[in-house]
From TrEMBL:
Name assigned to this protein: Enoyl-CoA hydratase/carnithine racemase
Top-level taxonomy: Bacteria, Pseudomonadati, Pseudomonadota, Alphaproteobacteria, Sphingomonadales
GO MF: catalytic activity
Signal peptide: none
Entries under PANTHER family matching the protein: EG:BACN32G11.4 PROTEIN, ENOYL-COA HYDRATASE
Similarity comment text for this entry: Belongs to the enoyl-CoA hydratase/isomerase family.
A Pfam family annotated for this UniProt entry: ECH_1
InterPro entries: ClpP/crotonase-like_dom_sf (IPR029045), Enoyl-CoA_hyd/isom_CS (IPR018376), Enoyl-CoA_hydra/iso (IPR001753), Enoyl-CoA_hydra_C (IPR014748)
Length: 275
């Protein structure tokens, strides 16, 4: 069944500037589509991805978003062939302004009101690895490769890796991985916490679809508030207390909460509407 669903998503996808968008039930599937460059992204592609994620985050019919790649790979970061083709390298200020746009993509993945799932087949290198790590869940195949790669070309990790990798594997391991531009296969990524689940090669999108479908059941408001709280960073008891004092009343006063309690009493499945 899931194989057929995945195929249908590919057939129905609408492509715009290197990003395909499709819908299966309450799940949106975004496909990075630059297969000749292993889905390395360029500015217009990155902007399209950011804008599409923002739109889907506000769509009440969407409960989860999957990011995947075309042609057997996830994403190998920025398309360096375009950088090399410039008549002159970018100045520090040009790079800084470009990084503001890069951070917008990281911000929407981590703060979107919907869970974002990375379905990683093949290579996720550089900023492509960063995109995967920013997602709420990461599904990998044994043949997937997660590569830091930044220091090998004289760069500092970007697209949020200085934060997301530390969150997933801890500071000590992350420090070594980033400094040495480590490469991990899918099994190793799951073992150390870079990825959450291992699926068979060729079946990663199917498993991601199964995980995404599970988010059709919980109330969407608590999901959004949990993401917001964790993205803001809770590192002390006082911050936890402040967050719960602010967020718990929002959930408790929602129509969905009233519906959930009524459904519990009536022994039926709740119908949540994000209100």
């Amino acid at each position: 069944m899931t194989d057929a669903l995945a195929a249908q998503a590919g057939e129905d996808a609408v492509f715009e500037e290197g990003v395909g968008a499709a819908r299966i039930g309450t799940t949106a599937i975004l496909t990075l589509n630059n297969p000749g460059r292993r889905n390395a992204f360029y500015p217009e592609m990155r902007r399209t991805l950011t804008a599409t994620l923002k739109r889907l985050s506000a769509d009440p019919q969407v409960r989860a978003i999957i990011l995947t790649g075309a042609g057997g790979h996830f994403c190998t970061g920025a398309d360096l062939s375009r950088v090399a083709a410039r008549p002159a390298p970018p100045t520090a200020m040009e790079t800084r302004e470009n990084m503001k746009e890069v951070m917008e993509l990281f911000r929407i993945i981590t703060t979107a009101s919907k869970p974002v799932i990375a379905a990683v087949e093949g290579d996720a290198f550089g900023a492509g690895c960063s995109i995967a790590l920013a997602c709420d869940l990461v599904v990998a195949a044994p043949t997937s490769r997660f590569g830091m790669s930044f220091t090998r070309i004289g760069l500092v990790p970007d697209m949020g890796m200085l934060y997301s990798l530390v969150e997933r594997v801890g500071k000590t391991r992350a420090r070594r991985m980033m400094m040495l531009s480590s490469v991990s296969d899918g099994a190793e990524a799951v073992r150390i916490g870079m990825a959450d689940e291992l699926a068979e090669t060729g079946g990663v999108l199917d498993r991601a679809l199964e995980l995404a479908a599970a988010f059709a059941d919980p109330a969407p408001i608590p999901i959004a508030l949990i993401k917001s709280a964790l993205a803001s960073g809770i590192v002390s008891v006082e911050q936890m207390i402040a967050a719960e004092l602010d967020l718990v009343p929002l959930g408790a006063s929602s129509a969905d909460c009233r519906e959930g309690i009524a459904a519990f009493r009536e022994k039926r499945k709740p119908v949540f509407q994000g209100r």
